Amino acid sequence: MNAASNTSTLKNLIFDLGDVIIPIDLTAPIRNFAMLANLPEDEVRAIWQQHELIGQYETGLVDDSAFRDHVRRLLKNDFGTSDSWADEVIDTAWNTVLLELPVERIERIKELKQTYRLFLLSNTSPIHIRKVNHMLTSVNQPTLEDLFERVFYSYAVKVAKPSPEIYQHVLTEAGLVPEETAFFDDNAANIESAAALGIQAVHVQPR
Question: In the chain, fewer beta carbons within 10 Å around the N or the C end?
C-alpha cells in the first residue's frame, strides 16, 4: 500500500470489497460464460462491453431477473425454452469472479473495528453480495452488513465509483469528515476521485 496520511486524526475507514477484502478474477465469468455458450472468449467479452451489462447491473438499472434474462438473450441461450440456463447456472458462472476468502483479513477488520468506524463501499451486484455473505457465514464469520457499521453498494446507491457522487453520498449518509477518513481501493481511478474530495485515499496494490 502507499499513501500519505495523517493517522493521528484518522477516525473512519472505508474499504472496497474486490481485491481489498476478497481476491477476484475479473476474467473468470467471461471464460465460464464462453464455455457455457460454446463461444470464443473474445466474442463474449465484446458482447458484454457493447451492451454495458455489468455497468447496468451494478448501478441498479436492471435487477437480478433482468440481468439473467439479458445474459440468456445476448448469449443466444434459447431464452424461454426448456433448454435455457437455470438461474443457478448463471449465478454460479457470474460468481466465479470471487476467489477464496482470506479469513485473516476478516479477523483484521474485526480488530480495526475496536478503534475506528468501519464502512464498505463496493461496485457490486446483489448476486455477488449474497455469495460473499454465504462464504463468510460458512466459516463462522459475520456477514458484511454485520462486519461494518454501514455498507454502500453501487446497485443500491445507483451510482458507481469513481463518480464523486458516490463518495459524497457515503460522507453525507455516515456523517464523515473527509480528512478524518481513509479509503482503501485497488483501482487508481477510484483512489484519485476519493482523494479529490479530501479523503485519505490508499491505493491497495498486489503483493
Answer: C
